Amino acid sequence: MKACKICFRSVDEGVSLREYLFYDDIICGNCRHKFIENKKTYSYHNLRITAFYLYDDFLESLLFQYKEARDIALADVFLWKKKEEVFDIFRHSACILMPSSEQKIKERGFHHLERMLECCHVEPISCFEKKDGYKQSTQRASERGKIKEVIKLKYPIEKDFILFDDVITSGNTLLSTASLLKDSNQIVKAVALSVHPLFVELCEKERL
């Protein structure tokens, strides 16, 4: 029996006949159906953002287990269903990862975004570094805009690129990295695993 990488039950559980016949997954249908598809794209300042899923309690818990509990076996589950789409997106553009601190990468033993993209056969570029000890999710909303002060571009990128992150909460990290790579008036594309409800609310409020 092929076991689900999340709940360890059979991958055939909760799978429709169509999914069983035409789609090969590494998690069961019950777990796969907990991923809430995001149908919208967003324009935020000079960013054009595509996000595959909505960030909720299920995805938060799964990302925590993967990143903080260092359960690397979960790396492929996030983008498995989107792997062909992700490959096509980055076929002709460099995949630029959002920065993680070297300290955090060493603690985990892997770069969570790099490992997440492996199943998509995308070779990402990690051209940013972030000051150790800074975690945006722990900052007040008024302080998050200062994130550019803790991000440094290690080397320039000459080719076309698209930014990649796991969760978009405020958009400040994307805006900061985009400004280090392009002029402020240039449109930059970004792709994310998920988008936080706070960001969705922000875009709806500003009609973006």
Key features of this structure:
208 residues, alpha/beta, Rossmann fold, five-stranded mixed beta sheet, two-stranded antiparallel sheet
- Number of beta strands: 7
State the oligomer: single chain
Beta-strand residue fraction:
15-25%
Structural domain tally: 2
Give the C-level CATH assignment of the largest domain: Alpha Beta
Topology-level CATH name of the largest domain:
Rossmann fold
Strand line-up of the largest beta sheet? 1-2-7-6-3
Structural class: alpha/beta
Number of helices: 9
> H/E order of the elements?
HHEEHHEHHEHEEHEH
The dominant shape is: globular
Helix percent reads: 25-40%
CATH architecture of the largest domain: 3-Layer(aba) Sandwich
Radius of gyration: 17 Å
Q: Are there runs of 5+ residues with pLDDT below 50, and where? A: 137-145
Mean pLDDT value: 89
Q: Distance N terminus to C terminus? A: 46 Å
Main beta sheet: 5 strands, mixed
